[in-house]
Hints:
The chain has helices spanning 7-16, 42-54, 61-70, 90-105; strands at residues 22-28, 34-39, 75-82. The chain contains four helices and three strands, in the order αββααβα. The chain is an alpha+beta fold and 113 residues long.
Amino acid sequence: MTETINKKDLKQSYKDSPTTAGIYLIANTQTGHKLLASAANAQGVLNRHLFELKFGQHRNKALQQAWNQYGEPAFEFTVLEKVKPDEQNVKAALENLLEAWQQKLRIAHEYSY
Length: 113
């Protein structure tokens, strides 16, 4: 028996799926360059970065150029830390976590995307 897939239901299911705010990192393992940022949907944003890079349309030209030069195997995409779902002020929590990770990783300006 085959089941018909309803595009509207799939779309709604995607919209209803839980998202996790957090801090993410894109690291070039060949050069040491990194992009550190926060997002309300960290995994979703990482997926968007990967999609844009694969199709040569990333808004960060330096990152796109490095991707073109070194290829996908040279990059790591990581959610470093997630904000607890019950966090009252997610925006403030993300700002605090991002600052803490910036201090921890100490990414020099010349090694930042």
